[in-house]
């Protein structure tokens, strides 16, 4: 059994707090019924047959096998309702069954599981069948606030994103946020996420975070992001992800106005990967860089016999 210490105790305390809070409240039976009545159980069975060749320009432009495998996938996803309209759980798992695979196929094929269970143990030697628990989280909501802790995928605005295969990758951590709607004036939301482990969908076990040398451990990653929307006109989305070494900042603003009777959407974004320790940073990040982009988009409206149609 995996034990948790140090930084991991923060996550354990967060999960324990959510669980313990439910025991302090006497919930009428009618209120608890929402946990089951509003729950959903979904799933599916899928078959993959992939054959892909790529040209090797280093070997006389010969086409060589890149992927050649047949794989079954299946998943079950349970999402509870909320007991007392506050507490719930989400649990989901998926399986991969390798039927056949060419010895020349690339590994991992990212549909089945890698023969190595952890990302930083990867040796690209093969694939295998298996089962992965990709979601197991306690969830909470109260008024405009919400929170989740456990095995999760980000749901708020964040720069921490999972890989995707048949199913998404999984973070071990916690996320919380709030949403405020001010009617015609606009809306404001924000979220914070903290994580100390991760697994891609083709790895079965969680692994720590490391710098590019694959030896220097990064204790945790976290991200804070507000999102302000002025309805029909503009929005502002700064984000601050980071770890013990990196402090990148991302900001995005957009504004919409009419030009000759058609809406013109403008967006400007800015990123700056700030380095806390230059000596520990990978080479590509050793210089402070600022990237900015301006995007303009418009949609034209053409009147037709029956209705208007948007082009562009």
From TrEMBL:
Gene3D superfamilies: Porin
A Gene Ontology biological process term: oligosaccharide transport
GO annotation, cellular component aspect: membrane
Keywords: Signal, Transport
Domain of life of the native organism: Bacteria
Keyword Signal: yes
GO molecular function: porin activity
Signal peptide: 1-32
InterPro entries the record matches: OM_porin_bac (IPR005318), Porin_dom_sf (IPR023614)
The family this protein is said to belong to: Belongs to the outer membrane porin (Opr) (TC 1.B.25) family.
Name of protein: Outer membrane porin, OprD family
